C-alpha cells in the first residue's frame, strides 16, 4: 500500500468523512496485520485518528486510548494518544470515558460542560466521543477510544458508526 | 503546578532550549509521580517532547518510544509516540534506533541518509536523535527515546544532555 509507514496518514485528498474513515479502517487493518501487541497497534491507531480528523477540518485536540488497568480493573489508565498531556487514571463510571467503560455504550457528547461529572484533562475541550472496546469473548471492557474536539458538536452518528467498527477491529486484532 | 494536565505542555514562553528542556524534565517528574505504568508515563512523555520541541521551532515530525519486546528481546516494538504512523518493529543493531538499543550509546545523526542501514519510517525525516533507556540494575536496554526532524542537524549536544537525563528519569520511574 505504501513505501513508508508515515504514508498511511495521508488523508488530504478525501472528499467526505465516510471516505476518510473508510481509509482509516483499512489503514488500521494494514498496520495491525500479523501484529497483536496492543501498545504498538493503539499507538499507530491514535496517529491515524489524529491525521484523519485533522484532514477533515475537525478540530480534534486529543485522539487516543484509555485501557482497563490490569492491576485494578475498576480503573482506566492512560494509553497511547496524540495531543496534550492527559489524566493518568479514570475510575469506571466517572466522566465521559468512565461512563463508556462501565456502560459499554458509545458516549456522544455535544457539550462536555453539560455532561454530569465531566473530567477535564484540558479546559479547551468542548465536545467528545468515547467508544468502548469490548472483549468479544469475556464481554469485559478492554479499553476506550477517546476523541476530544475544540468545538461544540464535533462528532455525529457517522463517527459513532465508523469508530464503533474501529473498536471491533481493535478488539479482534490486539492481545491486551 | 497546573489545574489541567494539558497545561504541562505550555512551553510557549521559554527563551532557550535549556529552559524548555528543564521544564520538560520537571513536567515529566510531576506527571509520573506515584505512577509506574510505563505506557501511561511514556504516552505523556511523548506529548511533552512534541510540544517542547515544537515550541522551540525545531521541526520534529516524530517524538516517541520503541521498547524492548518482552516476547523477543532482540527486537524493539513501537511504543507511545506523537507524529505519523511508524514501523512496528526494529531489530537490535539495525538502523538508528536498533544501534542505540544494542550499543546503549546515544545516536546523534545530523543526516539520516548518511547513516548505514537507516530505516525510513517516514521519507521526510532528515535528522534524528535516539537515546537508550537502560535498566539501572540489570543494565539491559528497556527502550529508546526517538526524535525525528524534518531538517538536517536538528539536534545537538544540549539535546543529548537533557534527553539523557529524561532517559534516566524514565528508567527510575517506570515498571516495564
Automatic annotation (TrEMBL), chains A, B:
Cellular component annotations (GO), alphabetically ordered: cytosol
GO aspect biological process, one term: cellular response to oxidative stress
Domain of life, per lineage: Eukaryota
Domain spans labelled GAF: 60-171
InterPro entries per UniProt: FRMsr_CS, GAF, GAF-like_dom_sf, Phosphatase_reg/MetRdx
Pfam family name, one: GAF_2
MF-aspect GO terms: L-methionine-(R)-S-oxide reductase activity
Family: Belongs to the free Met sulfoxide reductase family.
Protein name: GAF domain-containing protein
Source organism: Naumovozyma castellii (Yeast)
Lineage: Eukaryota, Fungi, Dikarya, Ascomycota, Saccharomycotina
Amino acid at each position: 500500500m505504501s513505501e513508508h509507514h508515515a504514508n498511511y496518514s495521508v488523508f488530504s485528498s478525501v472528499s467526505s468523512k465516510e471516505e476518510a474513515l473508510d481509509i482509516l479502517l483499512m489503514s488500521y487493518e494494514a498496520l495491525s496485520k500479523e501484529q497483536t501487541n496492543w501498545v504498538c497497534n493503539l499507538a499507530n491507531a491514535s496517529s491515524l485518528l489524529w491525521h484523519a480528523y485533522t484532514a477533515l477540518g475537525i478540530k480534534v485536540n486529543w485522539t487516543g486510548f484509555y485501557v482497563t488497568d490490569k492491576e485494578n480493573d475498576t480503573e482506566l489508565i492512560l494509553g497511547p494518544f496524540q495531543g496534550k498531556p492527559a489524566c493518568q487514571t479514570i475510575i469506571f463510571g466517572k466522566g465521559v470515558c468512565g461512563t463508556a467503560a462501565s456502560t459499554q455504550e458509545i458516549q456522544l457528547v455535544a457539550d462536555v460542560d453539560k455532561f454530569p461529572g465531566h473530567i477535564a484533562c484540558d479546559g479547551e475541550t468542548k465536545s467528545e466521543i468515547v467508544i468502548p472496546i469490548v472483549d468479544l469473548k469475556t464481554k469485559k471492557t478492554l479499553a476506550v477510544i477517546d476523541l476530544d474536539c475544540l468545538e461544540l458538536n464535533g462528532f455525529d452518528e457517522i463517527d459513532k458508526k465508523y469508530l464503533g467498527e474501529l473498536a471491533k477491529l481493535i478488539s479482534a486484532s490486539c492481545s491486551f
